[in-house]
């Protein structure tokens, strides 16, 4: 019986352990977590979601305060179209986050940045262009374009000197999405260097419908993508993601032609992960019934989360003057509408509850939106229960090596 370590992910002459830790926004996949993946010979991700907040936390910059101060006059205004990001600050925050991470990198692995294109930031094109260019400037090994895949994103950086040398990949949830992307980008003569196929059991946002996500199956979509690339004679590594919980699950995909696997949920309970330990204990405690896919994300994509997380039903005033990452090109966010609808329906109420949407920026910033993968309820089987009833937090190295070397569906418990 084989283990993951019997396989290698090949990028040209470079060989890596075929384990990629997926991007988890707002600094859940921290630099520390990505650095461990790289040190151990795999691929780690940082994320550029809410980059100003991440920079303020890591480097004591004051970007969020400055923006909030500039737009303070607009806080009670339902119209957020005036609230713009300062492109210079986005660039500086990205350079700091990426640059310092890359300086600290050790080992043979690589570090990529996950760019969620659905973070439209009230100027989708301009802000994405700055985010991508600054990450390349600061030396990131690669970029993974995720949620909201805009077919024109490669073109935004086609003149960047690193456009052909950095690893650029995309996340898709169907063969159709991949075909559209390839068709749209044919003129650039620059194929993606890797394709992450994300299935319906993943954490974060899902690329499926709210009502029918459960009908899809990662192995089937992955096989379709691999067969299509073969037929087109395109040699691009395919990386399935979503519900790959053990090394043996991963081997199943690698034996069927995948080049690597992308995993995340198991690492949400690592010391190096950005989630506070209190939240990590909630992940450990969760039962299968506690995990839901709902429509509360203003992005319009279904999202998986723990149903007891504080983000659901909270009715806070929209915080777009400080954050505003989900504002579309016209300054709209679905949460603003939902919030003001409830305010109008409950005149004079001290507390407002909004159940159909959530202020995702604020709650992700505060680690109050407990997004997670489908198999979160199995995390308790990956560690030991301590005398006080809590669960032992793991090291990223322990989890990584368990994926790399385990066989027979086994999961190694920590010392
Ligand atoms: C807590 C959490 C946050 C996530 N955030 C993002 C994100 O910001 N962007 C993204 O592309 N994927 C995100 N994902 C998806 C992962 O990168 C990954 O593809 C997927 O969860 C892998 O499946 P697994 O969690 O079952 O291992 C997130 C996953 C989790 C568990």
Automatic annotation (TrEMBL):
Gene3D superfamilies: Aldolase class I. Pfam families: NMO. It comes from the Bacteria. Keywords: Dioxygenase, Flavoprotein, FMN, Oxidoreductase. It comes from Sulfuritortus calidifontis. GO terms for molecular function: dioxygenase activity; nitronate monooxygenase activity. This is NAD(P)H-dependent flavin oxidoreductase YrpB (Nitropropane dioxygenase family).
